[in-house]
Task: structure prediction
Amino acid sequence: MALKLFELLGADDRRFSPYCWRARMAIAHKGLAVEYVPCKFTDKQLFAFSGGKTVPVLQDGDAVFTDSWDIACHLEEAYPDRPSLFGGPVGRGEARFISEWIPAFSRPLLMTILKDIFDHAHADDKGYFRTSREERFGQSLEAIHADRETYAPALEAGKLPLRAVLKKQPFICGETAAYGDYIVFGAFQWARCVSPVRLLEKDDVLYAWRGRMLDLFDGLGRSVPAYPE
Amino acid sequence: MALKLFELLGADDRRFSPYCWRARMAIAHKGLAVEYVPCKFTDKQLFAFSGGKTVPVLQDGDAVFTDSWDIACHLEEAYPDRPSLFGGPVGRGEARFISEWIPAFSRPLLMTILKDIFDHAHADDKGYFRTSREERFGQSLEAIHADRETYAPALEAGKLPLRAVLKKQPFICGETAAYGDYIVFGAFQWARCVSPVRLLEKDDVLYAWRGRMLDLFDGLGRSVPAYPE
Result:
């Protein structure tokens, strides 16, 4: 029976959640069949059975997982004969470090593209998204958008270690992509799916890496509506 | 024949180089016998045979390595039957990410403890250290020391992903320490060997982790002169 992945749906079939992309890529890495169940922010009843309040939610037979890290760990443990996501316990430990580091990049990215996310949220979700985010950040989406250059230095600082490692090897995880790459790719794909902001120029090693990531699994990352690279 | 590790020597037998600590811990992880050859900054003739200008330098029979990353990779490849430093190619790739990320923490740390390093440099090295660092940073050591609080926010930001991961697992690399831990430990041990600055309070998960790191290999990290934890 195919896995079932409940994932975020925006306007015009946009699939922008960075955490859902981690799960998508991890499932593809394992070569497993999957049925995507698109859910709007306000479709929480679709996956209420999971006990979780956000997507991704993975259903694998009777087992249900409500967090992207738990999804990756489940796939690794349940499908040990498929290509490894972590390459062993040390790789898994270090992937956790990447997962805890990524906010240094993804938080300024969130503030940079917040209004773009709103623009591409499903019409049914716009009220919820505006209210919840303006409450969280204490500012209107438009004010955050107007100040987005404030986040540029942190965003650039976040690219530095990624760029440095990709000057030495083709993927974050070495010679081939693994879960650490999917964590980072999720952030770039999030932006690519909703924002006209050019995060990467063509002469950047990160641009080339993102291209390699988009090529994986028969171009899975390119199979959804997005802005040009 | 024992390995020979040329490492940095300060005043009063201080061994503070973070890169030398990576090599020390990696050699101990492999359980290999090693002879330390202490070198002052200005003792470059002692390891000139290596072609390198900085320590650590590792001599393993006829093979010589002049960079801490190359040292780790050599140990992993030459001693595959000993405990693994990387746990495989993915762990090695991700360790490289940690190695490229650590400057986000170690650069503000350097500026915080620069004057303390000078204070603990060997008497023969003080002139060289002052001149080279004041030229590099365009300020006197005393001016940098007076402004050291400037670096506190970046230093604290650097601790965040470390703390987050150590709330979830005992080591950066998971259940047991591996090379990713030694990269980070090098930075903390550098400070501990020369600086009275309290980097970590006792209720910090990072403090507990550093204690576990200092316990490794019969207390190797505690076998050198340092400030109290």
User: Anything to note?
Assistant: The beta strands of chain B are 3-8, 34-39, 57-60, 63-65. The first helix of chain B runs from residue 18 to 29.
